Amino acid sequence: MSSARLSGVGVSSGRASGPVVRVAEPLGEPPATPAPADPAAESARIRPAADVVAQRLLARAETVEGDAKAVLETTAAMASDPSLLAQAEKLVTDESLPAARAVHQAAGGFITMLQAAGGYMAERARDVQDVRDRLVAELLGLAAPGVPDLDGPSVLVARDLAPADTAGLDPTKVLALVTEEGGPTSHTAILARSLGIPAVVAVRGVLAFTGTALAVDGDTGDVRESDGTVRSAGNTGKPTWNGIGILRDGHRVKVLGNVGSPADAAAAAAAGAEGVGLFRTEFCFLSATEEPTVEEQRKAYAVVLTPFAGKPVVVRTLDAGADKPLAFLAPEPEPNPALGVRGVRVAFDKPEIIDRQLEAIALAAKDSGADVSVMAPMVATAAEAAWFVKRARAAGIPRAGVMIEIPAAAMTAREIAAVVDFVSLGTNDLAQYLFAADRQVGAVAALNDPWQPALLRLIKLVGEVGVETGTPVGVCGEAAADPLLACVLTGMGVTSLSMNHTALAGVGAKLAATSLDVCQLAARGALAAADPASAKIAARAPH
Predict the structure, then answer these.
(1) Contact yes or no for 425/476 (Cβ under 8 A)
(2) What value does the mean pLDDT take over residues 5-33?
(3) Which residues contact 114 (CB under 8 A, 6 or more apart)?
(4) What CA–CA distance (Å, rounded) separates 248 from 251?
(5) What whole-number distance in Å separates Cα of residue 426 and Cα of residue 439?
């Protein structure tokens, strides 16, 4: 790269320029030879190394607060995961592998499982890769991969950033983040927004950059060589929000959390979420070799629901299938799992599974006092929607809706609205199916940019139906976490926005500073744009 510009997907607003600091690449695959002379002694090295890595991460966690602290503590717990360590020890003793190779190989199994799960769970595979690389470095006596100590304000360039790296960043020293991989829903994107650091991901070719300084525009996604002068026009400190999703003209838009575990629920409640727009129930099933009983599910759900007693919570029923394999479902292999039997389609063949889950959700709702609704994933037609609503009503759950994440469902939103109580747009999957672009593949990340006009026009179709029929329309994909895009969505008729807890204050504060007519103008401009960058510029104009 010379002085020519590169481009990627802008995922955190702001502009900055300054000297480049490269994040160390993770170590390669450790060799499988030589075999240890004493396998028992070699195996015994693994747990002490894991303890060192975990303690190092916990020590860093003590120096930060909030989201960063939670991420570092979670990563430390992963480094001490008993099943990972036991599997690595077994590889040393049974197959005479060196400890570093055994850890790498054991972690590989976990990573493959998470990547196969797709979506939210696939994004967690990056956490395990980070832990693996830290353990391997410790066992080999090498420096841990990741962000080096920064002497001054710098633009960080990396292949990708591990959650623990991003969590420990100092916003006073990190001017901007640029990664060659990653996408709009990656952990780097989410945490960069919460820290107020401009960020651009999926910048193909940036690792080949040989210069010493870069200018980064987190709005347009532009990255170009600069003269090295330190400049920063990032976010101006942490936004303040009173916890009520309301525009300055009194128009109400609920600002809700996305949760997938008890820790997520506690964090969303602490961040002021008005409720939950997406409760992913997969955490209850992931490690199960047999279907959890109704009572086991009931207890697991109640822990997540309890922080939201008296508040609305939308529970998504099990989203699994050949693309997200769960042992007890025994899915048949499929040539293209993302287009096969997944989401609610699994329940058509095994309705007893969804009936037991709905029973458990209804019981957990009573236990917790939360105002619970349910919604089905991967619904394609009004007939499927009606099938699900009937089963939810039979389970005693009065409010049922569906996710709109298949383009066909968006195109038939009017028919679907006639049989449900609400709809929720899963923009991550909706974009993936609309553009035929896997959301985990960096090379096509730009197509999954939530500012793509084609995606916005599809959302507008659903929003119009919602306004005309009085059907509530939520957005629970990553699009809801962008404050400016949240305004555009509101202008299209969206009535609730659900997001990672780190984005709540930014979105809530932005909505409070605008009005519905301004949101509608911003939406009109974005819808008429030819590309994502133009859509952002047009949306910003009325504000």
Answers:
(1) yes
(2) 88
(3) 121, 122, 124, 125, 128
(4) 7
(5) 13
For Cα atoms 305, 64, 146, give the angle at the middle one, nearest 5 degrees: 105
Residue 82 is encoded by which pair of tokens?
Answer: 């008993």
Question: DSSP state, 186?
Answer: S
Q: What is the pLDDT of residues 94-129, one digit of tens each?
A: 999 999 999 999 999 888 877 766 666 666 777 788
Both structure tokens of 18 = 């300054």
SS (H, E, C) 117-152: HCHHHHHCHHHHHHHHHHHHHHHHCCCCCECCCCCC
CB 178, CB 8: distance < 8 Å: yes
Q: Which residue has the tokens 């240890």?
A: 36
DSSP 375-437: EESS--SHHHHHHHHHHHHHTT---EEEEE-SHHHHHTHHHHHTT-SEEEE-HHHHHHHHHT-
Tell me if residue 224 falls in helix, strand or coil.
strand
pLDDT tens for residues 396-445? 999 999 999 999 999 999 999 999 999 999 999 999 999 999 877 778 88
Cβ-count burial of 127 within 10 angstroms (0-12 exposed, 13-18 middle, 19+ buried)? buried
Q: What pLDDT is stored for residue 442 in this prediction?
A: 75
Check if the beta carbon of residue 129 is closer than 8 Å to that of residue 114: no
CA 9/CA 531 separation, integer angstroms: 12
Say how far apart CA 193 and CA 502 lie, in whole Å. 8
Question: Could you say which DSSP state residue 532 is in?
Answer: H
What is the CA 367 to chain-centroid distance, rounded? 29
Count of C-beta atoms within a 10 Å radius of residue 355 = 16
Residue located via tokens 């960058």: 533
Q: What is the pLDDT of residues 482-519, one digit of tens each?
A: 999 999 999 999 999 999 888 899 999 999 999 999 99
Dist. CA 125–CA 480, nearest whole Å: 23
User: Which residue, chain included where needed, has tokens 């420096």?
Assistant: 143
Look up residue 77 and give its two tokens: 């717990």
Spell out the residues 6+ positions from residue 388 whose beta carbon is closer than 8 angstroms to its own.
317, 344, 347, 354, 376, 379, 400, 402
Q: Tell me which residues are annotated as active site.
A: 187, 476
Per DSSP, the three-state class of 542 is: coil
Q: How many CA atoms lie within 13 A of 543 on its CB side?
A: 23
Tell me how long the chain is.
543
Its sign, for the CA torsion 183, 445, 207, 210, is negative
- The first and second tokens of residue 260, run together, are 């997938």
Who contacts 393 (Cβ-Cβ below 8 Å, separation ≥6)? 400
Quick one: which of 318, 339, 313 has its CA closest to 329?
318
